[in-house]
Amino acid sequence: MTVRDDVQLDLSYDGVVRRYAPVIGLETHVELGTVSKMFCGCSTEFGAEPNTHTCPVCLGLPGALPVVNAKAIEYTIRIGLALNCSIAEWCRFARKNYFYPDMPKNFQISQYDEPLCVDGHLDVVVEGQTYRVGIERVHMEEDTGKNTHVGGATGRIHGAEYSLVDFNRAGIPLIEIVTKPVEGTGPLAPEVAKAYVTELRDILRSLGVSDVKMEQGSLRCDVNTSLSPIGVSEWGTRTETKNVNSLRSVERAVRSEIIRQAAILDRGGRIKQETRHFQETTGETRSGRSKEEATDYRYFPEPDLVPVAPARDWVADIRASLPELPAARRARLRSELGLSTEELQQMVNAGVVEAVGETVQAGATAAEARNWWMGYLAEQANSREVEPTSLPITPAQVARVILLVADGKLSTALARQAVDGVLQTGKDVDAIVAERGLAVVSDTSALTRAADEAIADNPDVADKVRGGKVAAVGALVGAVMKATRGQADAPAVRQILLQQLGVSE
Amino acid sequence: MSDERPTLTRDEVAHLAQLARLAVTEEELDLFAGQLDVILGAVARIGDVAAADIPPTSHAVPLQNVFRADEVRPSLPREDILAGAPAVEDFRFRVPQILGEEE
Amino acid sequence: MTQLHELDAASTAAAIASGEVSAVEVTQAHLDRITAVDGDVRAFLHVDTEGALAAASAVDEQRSAGAALGKLAGVPLAMKDVVVTKGLPTTSGSRILEGWVPPYDATVTRRVLDAGIVMLGKTNMDEFAMGSSTENSAYHPTHNPWDLSRVPGGSSGGSSAAVAAFEAPLSIGTDTGGSIRQPAAVTGIVGHKPTYGAVSRYGLIAFSSSLDQAGPFGRTVLDTALLHEVIAGPDPLDSTSIPQPGPDVVAAARQGARGDLAGVRVGVVRELTGAGGGYQQGVLDSFRAAVDVLAGLGAEIVEVSCPNFDYALAAYYLIAPSECSSNLARFDGVRYGLRVGDDGRHSLEEVMSLTREQGFGAEVKRRIMIGTYALSSGYYDAYYGQAQKVRTLIARDFAAAFTAVDVLVSPTSPFVAFGIGERVADPMAMYVNDLCTLPASLAGTPAISVPCGLSDETGPALPVGLQIMAPAMADDRCYRVGAAFEAAYTAANGLILDQIPQLGAVR
Question: What sign for the dihedral angle of Cα A463, A469, A470, A471?
């Protein structure tokens, strides 16, 4: 094969995906939310002092033996069922042997050819189109400790003088969810990848099996990408991109890897099967260990553990206890709230579907709940750089605000002040309203006085209104609202102003 | 199968030693290559047993579903853990420069 | 009167319980004996004089306070160094763990201490329990008290020698392929490998996880049963621990000692009685005589064939190295133990390799490499996978045999104790020591070795062991038949250990 540099091809993403079809695959690691570790009773609490959550088992001291955490099995089955998997009648743990200093035993207890959950699927919607992502397997394993690299400029492994190891994380239950290769997405591969991880995260959250915080590493993603020229059915050589630790990065990593591989293929080059690392700063991937040199993991059944054979009635009980999953919930909300597909999709993208649903459940109307979460609360979240659902306000509190507005007790402006108070103090809506004296002024004589003052202060505007430009009354309403510190009932103010100006609509 | 088994070369022994993280000496390579070959020759007769349909045994008394409840138990005192360590810094295990990639 | 260190465990416990002697006196007598003879025998890697006397004194205090004492309270014991002991150095006979003081106790340690047994110290062993002679200890060989130029068997050779040399009435060993039974046989004492899962493995430094089993040594079958009773039982810390309590082995030993084996069917395993050669004649002679004794006690003797036993050696020398290659990976100089080459110039990978190279002895390295090979992706099915299937066939041979008989018997070892240095150059010559003990290891079934005679075929009179094998969870049969044989043999010939040559100045 010759390397060509004479041809000028379009190397933009849009250009590339006209020539190549991507195939992607995702391996997602999720730390389970058990209180104790996978094989010992040490706490799984995040952020403890180094090496304070360790014992003979998770430190791999000579003689120590693992015992399986029943809750971890139950959680894994929950996940498997939610992903439409079959739950194995019988499965085993295996040892994956490799030397690394964050791996106390120098083998990881994992599952190899006998995973607990196999052969499921997860549907995701991108641009109105449903893609079915096949789930190859869901298996259990244990997390590693954490290395801190000391010396060198970057704090990264390369150039470090030495490293320090903390084993608090070692042995935390981890599950790995492996997809089947995802074909047929065309240019939407990055979006499908992101939608899959997002949907997976929402499912895991609704199952209550993990706190799925990507920033704390409790959900981590590896993305496999390969390209084949359009019209060629055979898949290309794939690379595995690690270190993809946010939803946005999932999309970026796939996109940049597609462009990178296409540039090589265009020149007649070959893709090397390798592990690559995603660089958050540049949005590109960097070469890591070559797979050809990968160690032989020498898997064999873990002799210190006995097989896991989940009783069918246990599996049935777990299935019966599954909560409503995000997709079903969305469908229900859509019909209950009378939303269009687009409106729902906007809510999905904004990550507020659950919050809106709960706000409606707490008594608000669908339209208002949606307005608040997509509007004022989304703005507040944006300015604080958090997800709307991470704001310190509950759907019930939002619903309360909406009710107070509906009852005419708060104006929209006052309602925003009440929400601000909740966000600032964490106190309840009614307490904020009482404390700050937030109440609509509906005393007509007071409002009439304020209206007269506004007319006197703005003769030009008043003339315009008198002259037939009724819409100009808004400026006077604003003046009255300002004068009454937002406590006036805006429709009533408008009525009074028009009346004083002798104008009727 | 006993007859078809390839003999173990010195290079293969070196590869095994590398996989097993053993910095074996040149003399050991020669010694082990011979000894391992004899041992593997002796155990290769395991292949003579027709056992295709036989299930493997891993434990004498078959047990399954041995679990513990998800309960936090006290960890070891940190000073006890670090007492036996070859090198410690900031309450962590200190190790020399790592050349390999993160797994 | 007999000196204190010569008493068996049951008599010692009785003497302490009755107030005839104090536990401290008993412990001191054994510490004195160790001082007198261990320079020659070298059974111990570490003697805990202070800890032992303190434990003994606690027993004496409990007794004077009127507290109920365990059946073996105050009786001294020697602990194999593969068993983790909190606050006491634990090396598993390896340089790589030199100076390591564990921060926790093995379940076996815990049970021994909770029973009021006095732990004298830690005994020598083949490094990580790999060997049949204790010559693979990184520290020094142990000498057989019957002939100091010979090995005490292995890997639990320190524990067998300590009991045979009257340094302790009881000891703990571990048996992966015969490491309790073979040392018991060649030192003229009793040693039992319990059913796999009967004794917790929590805190035993793992060699081969699916085979390792801790068990008791004693000079009599009853003593051995008493110690078995202390250490056996379910343990939530070991997932492979059998959740039901085991049979009453002490009652079985007492029943057996009455000498009646009427109705007991004893199978002589054709494949383990030297048909293919390789067994010493003196061993076979003692064994045949022992079978006659059993017949004389009323047992019905049947010859049985277990054809797959012929593959036990091959299966064992694939499974054990495979598992050990993984179990021993944790010794890397990161969290505990030896670290070599950390001079700022070597990478972690190099330091790990240098540490393991210098920390492990030749036999350990050989087995790690064999195991690494056998688990490699291209060889797994042909080696480890096939060996696990052969285990099934061996277990089926046992199951078939046990439909016809109650116990199976064989010599414990094809040989009597051999000379130190005689077999070290040839790994295969060492491995055949385990020929008779491997089938029960692979099947996980219990087996006991009981002294059954002396053979002077290779020079001085040296002990021969009779192995009695039973089905899983029927350890009581080993003790019953063993005790019956012991009673009959002793009645006819006196105690075998009475014929051990005098050691040092004291005896």
Answer: negative
